[in-house]
Amino acid sequence: MNVYIHKDNWDKIINYAKAAYKTEKCEIGGMSVVIKDPDDDWIIENPVILKQEIGSTTCDLDKDELATYYTHMAMKYKDIEFRFCWWHSHHTMSAFWSGTDLSSIEEYSDGDLSFALVVNLKEEYKCRVSVWKPVQMHEDVNLEIMSDIDDTTIPAEILTEVKAKCETRSYKTTYVNNHNDLSLWKQPDGS
Q1: For residue 110, which of 91, 136, 86, 85 has the smallest C-alpha distance?
Q2: How would DSSP label each residue in 116-181?
Q3: Which terminus of the chain faces fewer neighbouring Cβ atoms within 10 Å, N or C?
């Protein structure tokens, strides 16, 4: 099983984290749905923040808001196999599972499968898949960030600058007796 996230959703989570730290010097948390694709992989989608109390090392989502969120998402995704991902930030700290984080992950143990994500401002992360039934196990997995942008596309301003500042070296071909004089490339034996 692989876990993916589209770059725009990743950026949204990181920007929530940056905004909470810039304005409040605090952590922030939120929720996402995780949709199962035809290859049995999972894609984290639609990250949101809910009403919450935030602090320098904690964030507590409002229970009523969380219940409303679960209900709305269950109705929206009723025809798709999905689970929930609880995500939160560790701002300038490393991305790791604190004791509080592990307790929060444990709150999902009444289901069969859940996801958790912790990020920091350096865009480091830990992504955990927790299987609750039939046997309980947890694994931190690689999160593949997918981009719809062709990474081979070169920004126009870069192309313009290269064209303006670079000149292609030209080579002069010399003809001797109507043949290219490639004497620089000939071997001492004339071949």
Answers
A1: 136
A2: EEEE-TTS-EEEEEEE-SSS-EEEEEPEEEE-SS-TTPPPHHHHHHHHHH---------EETTEE-
A3: C
Strand pairing report for 137-141 and 42-49: unpaired
Q: Residue 36 forms beta bridges with which residues? A: 42
Q: Which amino acid, residue 112?
A: D
pTM: 0.77
120 close to 104: Cβ distance less than 8 angstroms = no
Contact, 123 vs 94, CB < 8 A?
no
Give dist(CA 87, CA 99) in Å, integer.
15
Burial 147-172 (b: 16+ CB within 10 A, else e): eeeeeeeeeeeeeeeeeeeeeeeeee
pLDDT tens profile 128-158: 999 999 999 999 999 999 987 655 566 677 7
The dihedral through the CA atoms of 176, 181, 183, 189 has a sign that is: negative
Structure tokens at 160: 């313009």
Average pLDDT over residues 16-40: 94
The DSSP bridge partners found for residue 115 are 85, 129
Q: How far apart are CA 65 and CA 184, in angstroms?
A: 78
Look at residue 181 and tell me whether its pLDDT is greater than 80.
no
